[in-house]
Each structure stands twice: as structure tokens, then as C-alpha cells.
Write a structure and sequence with these properties.
Chitinase A, domain 3, four-stranded antiparallel β-sheet, 11% strand, EC 5.2.1.8
């Protein structure tokens, strides 16, 4: 298979290489970059995220590891650590590295394989050309990047972890190393000429033109205004203010920042640099707008203002800017050449190839990339997040076993049918449409049916089995539910304030003029809550048993036109104006009893499930060796404290 064919069957998008070459971070809350590795997760430390599936066939177990493709040179940037074979212990029951490898591979194998092959491809090219990226090279590059933003290396690496969850190891291996490698590989295309440096100098220190601009979207109007301006150049500011459709420049009477060379549209630059002070340009058509310029002043270059001792440093800085701007195109060009000549066979996603090549994930130029290496890479990037899910699953499975309960295929199907029914996925006959629901949920979440069932349906069913017998819907529950859903509502205006003192002042004003209109004006002026502020105090009607008993009690106590006292709700102070009560549409509880029971049971069940899982998790003894965390469990801690108290009493 040719490199071209292989690439088509297993695309290695050049966005990967572009991102590696152009990794840019803007301090101040924005880190703008494309993930060159298929995701920022790493086994060193990682918050759980949604798990994503890319294949549904059973996980392969690697046979004896085949001879690998050329070892990536970047390994020098991330020294190997000893692989622990037990990654966690949950209530004395281990989770093995092998089991975790299966789960990470199941969820992230394809995306990780793509980035792994990308790295191998660059590494092979480096070896062929005798290029070696040392750990010192990586350290120096990180120091340079941190210095550009005025940060220490530790703070820079910490910011990457905080903002993008990129660990230092991953940053070194998957961001910095590829950038350095591609820069070396593209060195011949990154030469900067004196002419290019001079262009940069002119951009920053060269001559410029102070102009006013008039922008309209009609050619006839533009020509008319241009004629008026040419006849009376002094009228240009007023014409721009009155007619220009560019709001910013119109507000400044047409004045825009001075135009420099080599920065914007060449036609505009050539036109304005040819004008003399006071002259009006012809009409130019640029970006769907008709533009007219008036030259206010031709401003000379600032080269003479550069201190003599600084010129060489400035020119060097300009050369660096040119080189950086070339990096993306040059790196993409190099990578496209590497990719065009590469022969890539994806074994991982081809069951027939996998059976003939056990233990191989892919081949690159005839050399195997082992399945074991792919598994380890998956653990490195996604191990912590996946392990946390497996710990939760283990806790649930242990409790099911302790209570002699099981989750059957029928249970899983019943839950999927229930979800389809509750979310309105129905057939023409009005029956739950399980297939339509599965299609929707898996496409939305980017997961396979297998993983949706494993990661969402199974835990739901397991928890329901653990708590279902404890959930009872009482007659009192039904009555409260009926009142909450179908009972009368209190219609009110509301003012929400964040200060008791301000609330007292507003309440006094409202009491002196207790009209609906004046209360609405006060809400618009003083309320800090957007809905009431923007709607003259109007808020959704208040129902009973809605979860805000203090507000509900006050709202239902008021007569129409009456103002409440100041109600404290957390850190906020609330004032209500009563508009009266609504009339219920349904007044017979028996008409909706079945629906209420079903809804209330589901709500109580969900709450019980959440409480049960929290209890099980809190009481579990968990040693997580990937995340370097340990938990003795609340039950164990309580027993220890009790024993200590008994010893103290003796």
C-alpha cells in the first residue's frame, strides 16, 4: 500500500502538525491551541471528563511485543518511570494495570493511535537526518517560552495545568518536543533574508499616513460623497460623521489609526501613500465596502528615533518574528512530505488484520507500533479519568455482590426503554423507540452503544437496584406534589438586593408609593437579579413546595397590592409586591394521580441513588496509585475514633 493510500485510510491530519508548530498561549485567561495529541489528559493528574469511545469491538490482548518502530527521540524529554501493575485497590480488591489498559484503549484507542503515529513519523525523520532533541533543548525552550510571558518556569507549567490540564510531562513530550523537532526538520525553509527583516522594520518603524476614512456600501453614494469632499476637503470630517457606515471611525469624524506599509490591504496602502496632505483618494472597493480616504499628513519613518545601541537587538527581534510566522507553513510543508512518503497500516481498527498481526496496533513504513505501546500511551493520557470511573464501578459491583443482587441484560434494556419514554422518543404507535434514543444519545455524546450502556446505563441500574426498595411515595407526597404542580400560584413583582441597608431604603420608598407601576420602576432601578430588573419586577409565579419555603410563605400570605416585608434568602434581600393568586386548571387529584406517583417516585429514586452512591464512595477504602491519593473511608475512620475514645476512657 502506498503512503498516499495509507494516509487516506488512516488520516493523520496536518492540523496536528500545525498545532505543534504554532502552540501559542495568551496569558490573561486564554490558551489558544489545537490539541496535537487527541486530548490533554495525562495519568499524572487529571480531573474526570466525559469518556469517549472510538471503537466497539472487544479489546485485544497484546501477544508478545513485536519489534517496535523506531523509538521516538522525544523519550529523552520524558524519562521513563517504573510501571505499577496494580493501579488501585478498592476495599482490598485490586484494579490491575492490564484492566485499566483495556478500558482506556476501549475509549481512546483510535485518537491516541493517531497522535502516537504522528510522533513516530517525526521521530523517524529526525533519526534519518541525525537530529537529536535533548532534554536540555526541551528545558531551554520551556524557559524561553515562560520568559516571553514574564513568568517563572514553575508558574508557566502550573498555568498550563490549571488552564488546560496539560501536565509538565505531556507538555514536554507532546507539545515542546514536536515543535523543536519540526523546527529542526524545517530549518532549511526558515531562513530569514535581509529583505524580510527590512519589511518588518518598515511595519514597525517605517513611514505612515495619517488619514480619515469614509465607508459606505453603495457605489453611487460613495462617488457622490467623494465629489463633495474633493470640492471641499475640509468637509470630509462632517461627511464621515454623517454618512460613514463604519461606526467607530464615524464617531471619530473619520479618523483612523495611521496606515503603515506591509500590514493591511496593499491597494489601500499604495493609494494613501501616493496622496499629498489634503488630497482625496478615488473610491476603493474593499471587503464589500466602498472606501474614500483623505490624507491628513504623510508621517516620516521613526528609524532615527531608535537608540544606536538598540538597533541590532531590534533587527534580531524582527528576524525572530519573521521566523515564527514562517513556522506553521514550513512545518506543515515538512509534515506533508513525511506523510506523503509514509506507509501506514491501521491494524487496530481492522479485525482481519488484527487476527493476522496479534499485538500490533499499526505499522509505519513496515515497522510495527505495538498494541502494548498504544495501551501505555492511553494510560499516560487518560488513565486517571478512566480509573476514577472504574473505581466507581468497582464500588457498585462490590455492593451488589454483598447484597446478592445482579444487573441483567433485561434490566439494562428496561432502563434504556424508560429513558426513551421519559425523553419523548416514541414510535408512531406511541411506544418507546429505543433505537432512536440510542442513536441520539450516542451521536450527541460521541460514544458507542457499548460504552453508553457500560458507563451510563449500568451504574444507573445498579444504583436503582440498591435503593429501589427504600423509596416509597406516600399520600402526603402525592398531595404536596399535586399542590406544587397543579395548585394555585402567587403572582408577584420582586426586587432582589444584595444589601440589607439598600433593601431597607428601597422598601421605604415602595411603602410610601405602594403602586404596581412604581414598584416596577424600583425593580428596574435597583434589582440585581436580571429577570426582575429587565421586566419591571415581573418574575415567574411562585408555587407551593417549590423549595423556597420562606419566600413561598410570604408570597401566599399577601393580598393583591400588598408589599411584603424584607425577606432574607441567603445573602440576598427580597421584596415582593402581590398581584394575586392564579386559579388551578385541575382541581381533582385523582385525574393525575398515576402521573404524579410516577414522577415523584422517579425524583425520590434519583435523590436516593445520589445519596447511596455518596455513602458508598465515602465509606470505601481507596488507594489510587495513579493519582497518588488514598482514602481510609468514613466507616473505618469512625471505628478508629471510637476505639481511641474507648482507650482514653480506660
Amino acid at each position: 500500500m502506498t503512503g498516499k493510500d495509507a494516509t487516506r485510510r488512516f488520516p493523520l491530519g496536518k492540523s496536528w502538525v500545525l498545532a505543534a508548530a504554532g502552540f501559542v498561549v495568551l496569558i490573561g485567561g486564554v490558551v489558544a491551541w489545537r490539541q496535537i495529541t487527541g486530548g490533554p489528559q495525562n495519568a499524572e493528574a487529571q480531573a474526570p471528563v466525559q469518556q469517549r469511545a472510538v471503537q466497539q469491538r472487544p479489546v485485544q490482548r497484546p501477544a508478545a511485543a513485536p519489534a517496535p518502530a523506531a523509538a521516538p527521540v522525544e523519550e529523552v524529554a520524558a524519562p521513563a518511570t517504573q510501571k505499577i501493575q496494580t493501579v488501585a485497590v478498592v476495599n482490598r480488591e485490586p484494579i490491575t494495570r492490564s484492566a485499566l489498559a483495556d478500558e482506556t484503549l476501549r475509549r481512546h484507542g483510535e485518537e491516541v493511535l493517531e497522535s502516537l503515529l504522528n510522533r513516530h513519523l517525526i521521530a523517524i525523520a529526525c533519526q534519518q537526518q541525525g537530529i537529536q532533541i535533548t532534554e536540555g533543548d526541551v528545558d531551554a525552550e520551556i524557559q524561553n517560552i515562560a520568559k516571553k510571558f514574564g513568568l517563572s518556569v514553575d508558574r508557566w507549567l502550573g498555568l498550563l495545568k490549571e488552564e488546560r490540564n496539560v501536565t509538565p510531562g505531556q507538555y514536554r513530550r507532546d507539545i515542546v518536543w514536536p515543535t523543536l523537532a519540526l523546527r529542526r526538520l524545517a530549518a532549511s525553509e526558515l531562513q530569514v533574508t535581509d529583505e524580510e527583516v527590512q519589511v518588518e522594520m518598515e511595519k514597525n518603524y517605517g513611514p505612515k499616513v495619517k488619514v480619515r476614512m469614509l465607508s459606505v456600501n453603495d457605489r453611487g453614494l460613495a462617488e457622490e460623497l467623494r465629489a463633495k469632499a474633493a470640492a471641499n476637503p475640509d468637509s470630509f470630517p462632517d461627511l464621515a460623521k454623517d454618512y460613514s457606515q463604519d461606526i467607530n471611525s464615524a464617531a471619530a469624524r473619520g479618523l483612523i489609526p495611521p496606515i503603515r506599509k506591509h500590514i493591511g490591504n496593499k491597494e489601500i496602502e499604495d493609494t494613501v501613500f501616493a496622496l499629498k496632505a489634503g488630497e482625496i483618494s478615488p473610491v476603493l472597493f474593499v471587503a464589500s465596502q466602498y472606501l474614500v480616504f483623505k490624507c491628513e499628513e504623510q508621517m516620516p519613518a521613526d528609524f532615527d528615533k531608535i537608540p544606536a545601541g538598540s538597533l541590532e537587538g531590534i533587527r534580531k527581534h524582527m528576524a525572530d518574528q519573521v521566523r515564527e510566522s514562517k513556522m506553521r507553513d514550513a512545518a506543515a510543508s515538512v509534515y506533508e512530505k513525511l506523510q506523503a512518503n509514509a506507509q501506514i497500516v491501521n491494524v487496530y481498527n481492522d479485525a482481519s488484520k488484527a487476527s493476522r498481526m496479534p499485538g500490533v496496533a499499526a505499522t509505519l513504513n513496515g515497522q510495527p507500533v505495538s498494541l502494548r505501546e498504544l495501551q501505555e500511551e492511553c494510560i499516560n493520557r487518560h488513565g486517571v479519568e478512566v480509573l476514577d470511573g472504574e473505581i466507581n464501578r468497582k464500588i457498585l459491583q462490590q455492593e451488589l455482590t454483598r447484597r446478592k443482587l445482579t444487573v441483567t441484560e433485561a434490566d439494562l434494556e428496561t432502563e434504556i426503554v424508560r429513558a426513551a419514554d421519559s425523553l419523548g422518543f416514541l414510535t408512531k404507535e406511541g411506544k418507546p423507540d429505543m433505537e432512536a434514543w440510542l442513536k441520539q444519545v450516542t451521536e450527541e455524546q460521541g460514544v458507542s452503544v457499548e460504552l453508553y450502556v457500560r458507563d451510563a446505563v449500568w451504574p444507573t441500574v445498579a444504583l436503582k437496584k440498591l435503593v429501589d426498595s427504600q423509596v416509597q411515595v406516600t399520600e402526603e407526597d402525592i398531595k404536596k406534589g399535586f399542590v406544587a404542580n397543579y395548585g394555585e400560584r402567587a403572582q408577584v413583582l420582586a426586587i432582589v438586593l444584595d444589601s440589607q441597608r439598600r433593601a431597607q431604603e428601597v422598601w421605604e420608598m415602595a411603602r410610601r408609593n405602594p403602586t404596581e407601576k412604581f414598584f416596577g420602576e424600583l425593580a428596574r432601578q435597583y434589582s440585581i437579579e436580571p429577570v426582575s430588573k429587565n421586566n419591571d419586577g415581573q418574575v415567574p409565579p411562585i408555587r407551593r413546595h417549590g423549595g423556597q419555603p420562606t419566600i413561598e410563605e410570604e408570597a401566599f400570605k399577601l393580598s393583591p397590592g400588598q408589599i411584603s416585608g424584607i425577606i432574607q434568602a441567603g445573602n440576598q434581600s427580597i421584596i415582593l409586591y402581590s398581584l394575586g393568586l392564579t386559579k388551578p386548571v385541575i382541581d381533582n387529584i385523582e385525574d393525575v394521580r398515576d402521573e404524579l406517583v410516577k414522577e415523584l417516585h422517579e425524583k425520590k429514586l434519583r435523590l436516593a441513588m445520589a445519596d447511596e452512591f455518596e455513602r458508598l464512595r465515602d465509606n470505601a477504602q481507596i488507594d489510587n496509585f495513579l493519582a497518588n491519593t488514598t482514602q481510609a473511608g468514613k466507616a473505618y475512620e469512625a471505628a478508629v475514633r471510637q476505639q481511641q475514645l474507648q482507650q482514653q476512657r480506660k
